[in-house]
Amino acid sequence: MSAFETTLFGRLSWDALPLAALLKNPGTNEIVANAAGAILVLGAAVVLFVLSYFRLWGVLWRDWLTSTDHKKLGIMYIVFALVMLARGVLEGVVMRAQQAAGPGDGFLEAGHFAQLFSTHGTIMIFFVAVPFVVGFINFIMPLQIGARDVAFPVMNQISLGLTVSGGMMLMVSLVVGEFSTGGWTAYPPYTGAAFNPGVGPDYWIWAIVVSGIGTTLSGINFAVTIYKMRAPGMGFMRLPMFCWTVICSSILIIFAMPPLGVAALLLAADRYLDFHFFTNDLGGNMMNYANLFWLFGHPEVYLLVLPAYGIYSEVFATFSAKKLYGYVSLVIATMSIAVLSFTVWLHHFFTMGQSALINAVFGVATMLIAIPTGVKVYDWMATMYRGRIRLSVPMLYGIGFLILFVIGGLSGVILANPTIDFQVHNTLFLVAHFHNVLLPGVLFAMLAGVNYWFPKAFGFRLNERWGRISVALWVVGFLFTFMPLYFVGLMGMPRRSFNWEDPSFQPYMIAAVIGALIILCGLLSVLVQLYVSIRDRAQNRVPVGDPWDGRTLEWSIPAPPPAYNFAVLPQVRDRDAFAEAKESGTAYLKPTGYDDIELPKNTSIGFLLCVLSGVWMFALVWWIWWLALGVTVAMLLIVIVWTFATETEVVIPAAQVKAEHEAWLALVARTPAVDRDDEAAPANLGYARPDMEGAT
Ligand code: HEA
Ligand code: HEM
Ligand SMILES: [Cu+2]
């Protein structure tokens, strides 16, 4: 390349396209890479076509992309997570197919397999689990505490923008260049410039840094919202359990994300500026990276699983029609897990040469987490004990979780014993452990949450039959995919192996790929469920907004909720505020008066920063310095100019609020109540207006 081209395009050239590799060196590997790129480009084209054909651009821009409404931002997070989940699951299936094709080398090259587990791990943790969790918190938490939005709605929009642009980098790396081969943990010196001079680790670094800033801002936003914006009477000890897990998770985000950002930026300094933080020479030491990464990495898995515990707590209480058993012990257990999670990071590298004493201390600290987790498990079981259980889809996920998660947790306690960990560290036993906690723990919770809160978000219920089918497929698929890995792990098969030779591994590998295909069907059935439900939405409407006989405040408002959530801020008198109101006959009362409501105006700053930060990352990855600099200046200017905006709010007049609310109250009064004690009522039937006599 000429000097001019290098200045203009950095290290970007036509060779970066997968097609170039295919033309040069045709093989299965290149075909798979090209097919993946082609699917992505085609998928994007179809989306653009559909949006244009149905003239949806205006709606998309006005109602979604520029919205600062926490509910819409939450839904966009969840949609983004679902899209990324599809890619992550497909990659999981391809990896399982590669390993099932053994003994021998399978159909993929080692480097391509390494890209697959690196993108899969990175996507599943940072762009599936995190956006799912942040999305649910966004949608639910303000409704549960009786607030009209989060504390910083515009910052919330920016958080989403940064998360999405990070995820987009993983999509771009499918088509331009390649992704890292360093796993989701990206350990140097393997990801250092000397060993890995390509663009892969740089894609990882910038995707993590930018999306990490987005997530950190969300953590701050959520913590401030709960501290400052609870409805009158909503003391901390009256918070719904989900909100308690949100507080703890936000604290984990605030303290755990910075070490990750620091680790990634120091790695960038090593790679771009020839620093030596993590090299093997000139005073560097990769153990600094391992410590920084896991100082984040361990709390990370709990910041994902705590809100999942929160969702299950809500589900178990609602579908057992009982108060959550042991509320105070659950609060203490959640806080204990949050605190303890910062004291155990070293268990991820027991084998890296510390003294036996240090290993023992961290091992014991790790095992301690089993105690508060056990408290939770027993509290959930006690909640169900003698409850009037309805086996609806969220509850089925919950029961699947309870049984499977205990197995995954117990295998964690086994790993926490350093002497055992020396045998199974970095084998498929470890892979089995973490999928065993991540799928039933985090992913099932999210699917349960989708089924549970979908009627609230969209005003109609999801199809029950397809919901049940997908639970069955996910659970069975999970068992087949991951249980065999415990055994091959014990037999010594290392993680991240693109090939293997020992014929005794074969049956397990075949069982695992069958399981992965069943999981794929599970994912498809979720899509079918969405399709069928949208098609039949007229029959499944729940405009009153309380389809499950809910206990917390989000069920006390219409479905879908108005932009301002609550026409009048609720007065909270007890835990499970809405259940209490229904029991005491004070639900759905006509308020004495209405006020004007101020809401944040739409703005395009989040979208702009999303696009610009994407360009910025791309420029840094490909060393296009003028572009990186230009975009940095543009982003700074946008933020500065935005701070001068004065009219950032719209006012919804009291008269409009009154009209809308009274129309809904009239609808509530017209809707026939379903008797709570009617044994013949089908399990999945909502209780629109239980105990309503004389209420309105
Ligand atoms: C949501 C995610 C999640 C969760 C909840 C957990 C939960 C736990 N994890 Fe896991 N873990 C991961 C995600 C998670 N983990 C990931 C992703 C990795 C690998 C990263 C990588 O290398 O790529 C990992 C790796 C990992 C290691 C490192 C192993 C190695 O690298 O060799 C260890 C070691 O101690 C460990 C331990 C534990 C323990 C003790 C728990 C406990 O919290 C479990 C507690 C739960 C129970 C114990 C069950 C319920 C309790 C009862 C019914 C009470 C009775 C029980 C007793 C008294 C024992 N985990
Ligand atoms: C849905 C079906 C899934 C399948 C079939 C699957 C399969 C796999 C496979 C084959 C690997 C590589 C194992 C190895 O190292 O040999 C892997 C790694 C991993 N998976 Fe999954 N997985 C699935 C879901 C998930 C989910 C839901 C998450 C997280 C929420 C997740 C997180 C990870 C992580 C973090 C790694 C480690 C990546 C690395 O080694 O750096 N997976 N998975
Ligand atoms: Cu850990």
From TrEMBL:
It is a multi-pass membrane protein. The chain crosses the membrane at residues 31-54, 75-97, 117-140, 160-183, 203-227, 239-269, 289-312, 324-350, 356-375, 396-416, 428-454, 466-488, 508-532, 605-625, 631-652. Belongs to the heme-copper respiratory oxidase family. Keywords: Cell membrane, Copper, Electron transport, Heme, Iron, Membrane, Metal-binding, Respiratory chain, Transmembrane, Transmembrane helix, Transport. Residues 55-573 form the Cytochrome oxidase subunit I profile domain. The lineage of its organism: Bacteria, Pseudomonadati, Pseudomonadota, Alphaproteobacteria, Rhodobacterales. PANTHER family: CYTOCHROME BO(3) UBIQUINOL OXIDASE SUBUNIT 1 (PTHR10422:SF35), CYTOCHROME C OXIDASE SUBUNIT 1 (PTHR10422). Gene3D superfamilies: Cytochrome c oxidase-like, subunit I domain (1.20.210.10). It is found in: Cell membrane. SUPFAM superfamilies: Cytochrome c oxidase subunit I-like. This is Cbb3-type cytochrome c oxidase subunit I.
